[in-house]
Amino acid sequence: DAGVTQSPTHLIKTRGQQVTLRCSPKSGHDTVSWYQQALGQGPQFIFQYYEEEERQRGNFPDRFSGHQFPNYSSELNVNALLLGDSALYLCASSFIGSNEKLFFGSGTQLSVL
Amino acid sequence: DAKTTQPTSMDCAEGRAANLPCNHSTISGNEYVYWYRQIHSQGPQYIIHGLKNNETNEMASLIITEDRKSSTLILPHATLRDTAVYYCIVRVAGQGGSEKLVFGKGTKLTVNP
Question: Does B106 touch chain A (CB under 8 A)?
Fold first, then answer.
């Protein structure tokens, strides 16, 4: 079992560009959540996807959007990148029928120059 | 905002027990206490959770006070690999993983040889 996998591991972009990050959930999981972690801070919830729909959203602007595919994998898209978007982006998966644990990937480190 | 307060940092000698405190004085009756940890350059890892009874698993023990306003995570025999940031989170469970995790800054635990 590969667990939660994210790609790419590192990414460098410039201001104004767009970026797409990808996540494959743990086998058997159907729900994917995305978190942003700035340096020295705890992760902050961006949004969650289940059945290909956004179920919950944190306090992030519309520049942040996502998608979930029929195979439960997910993408996070960020448009019009700002310097402040530089962070570690974490994907977490879970199964809607359980309630205890989120499993996190190792994240994508995004640097905006 | 996070509903928990934790010390910023703690030190522990290798082989000794590490006791990490957490205050959650505004916890609601249906909220569980969850602990996650984040080792450098990795995503958060689930450790343990509980409602009101003490819990133990292969990783740690969780002691919750009778009034549920505080708890302590115990690593019985800390090793160097336990050096990480430990997050205490209160969360409503039983919703199929739909309830987002609200992270604070956590406690940086350093296990010294």
Answer: yes
